[in-house]
Amino acid sequence: MAIAPRPGEVDTSLQDLARRHLWMHFSRMGSYNGDNEIPIIVRGDGCYVYDERGKRYLDGLSALFCVNAGHGRTELGEAAARQVEELDFYTLWSYAHPRAIELAARIATLAPGDLNRVFFTSGGSEAVESALKLARNYHRICGKGQKHKVIAREIAYHGTSLGALSATGITDLRSQFEPLTPGGCHVPNTNVYRWPKDRHPLWAATAIEERILFEGPETVAAVILEPVQNAGGCFVPPDGYFERVREICDRYDVLMISDEVICAWGRLGHYFGCERFGYVPDIITVAKALTSAYAPMGAMIASDRVAEPFLEGDASFAHGFTFAGHPLASALAMANLDIFEKEDLCGHVRAKESEFRQMLETLHELPIVGDVRGAGYFHAVELVKDKETKETFDDEESEDLLRGFLSAELYHRGLICRADDRGDPVVQLAPPLIADTEQFEEIHDVLHDVLSAAWERVKR
Ligand SMILES: Cc1ncc(COP(=O)(O)O)c(C=O)c1O
């Protein structure tokens, strides 16, 4: 609990220390002044977290798509403690240790097709960075060293390191750090809500082929896409999209990377998002909920075909991170996957996702709700000025709607979710996979009230 300092005393409350010393990520630090406090989360339990004053919030975003098994799992803490007693740390640089080996084998068993080789990282950007470097290196080792470009989709987020950022398709994030790693090319995403009615469902897949041909297939190393694209608001693929992308990648000897930093580990009701849509990529990138974020960890999972050239003679993938595959994180990932199995969290999402979806669909009665889309426990509600014409808000209106009202109001009402305008304005929901009817109703009630109030504020 924050206690105000007496006159003359130095303020050492968490609020004050945070304001003076903590550099928050992707945050407008200057906006935390006067009465506008930094939200400080101090405790978690199941689908809920608590702030420093003890106020409870429904974590409708699983702490940024991370805590899929829910907060406060003491069995995960116990697994971590056991691991520290046995082996605190050893690196994977020329050594191995039991937990990383067991986890790699377990991930290989769960992964589709022949994706059997697991390269650990410390997070999602590192996983994407590794995948992009592997794609280049694979082609080079196969004698096609000119293949270096990556094709990604507009508005997609693939991380912040300079290589991953070259795949990220959000202009505002890219332009301020240019020049980026060369070779990032962008194609349309599957925002079908904004497509003309008569557009062919495989138009966006064809755009990938056209771009490969435009760039020259001999220069293209990989295509990277999420099963459901997060940024822009949970864009789902039209039927047949991934099948077609797979064909295109095979035709031009381009590696298909499925970036599942969000979509793996049950978010779409399967261990891997690609299973939901029936495709087998060459590389999968994961992070976040691999440990339910009880420790930082990511991984790049490669197919036998892609890994093979690196397993022979004196070849090696000259790439690595000190902390990758950390024993503590590996032990937590194993214990996390035990929970997934014991409680059948993927099955729970598949059983409950239509109820979750129907609850969100009822918000269509509000004039500000233009679209509800997503899959599993990963949905977005797109906000519009005019339902009939789908007219969206301009930058200023969007700023006022999201940052001037919605984000603060939703939080104030005890719901953590994401009000985002990297594309058109959306509210995104991704609760822990243990969420059930009670949480759906709570989400509905808050969203209904807050979106109604938002409409009163913006209507002309
Ligand atoms: C699809 C995708 N790829 C990569 C990343 C980057 O992961 P990290 O923030 O762990 O570096 C994210 C982060 O949200 C993501 O959603």
Task: Give an overview of the whole structure.
By secondary structure, the chain is α/β, with parallel strands linked by helices. It folds into 2 domains: 39-72 and 344-458, Aspartate Aminotransferase, domain 1; 74-342, Type I PLP-dependent aspartate aminotransferase-like (Major domain) (Aspartate Aminotransferase, domain 2). Helix content is 38%, strand content 16%. It is built from 15 helices and 15 strands. The strands form 3 sheets. It has a 7-stranded mixed β-sheet with strand order 4-10-9-8-7-5-6, sandwiched between helices. Helix 4 (98-110) runs parallel beside helix 12 (327-342) and helix 8 (203-215) runs parallel beside helix 9. The longest helix has 22 residues, at 437-458. The radius of gyration is 22 Å and the shape is globular. The model has no long low-confidence stretch (mean pLDDT 96). The structure holds pyridoxal-5'-phosphate (PLP). Pyridoxal-5'-phosphate binds at residues 123-125, 128, 157-159, 226, 230, 259, 261-262, 287.
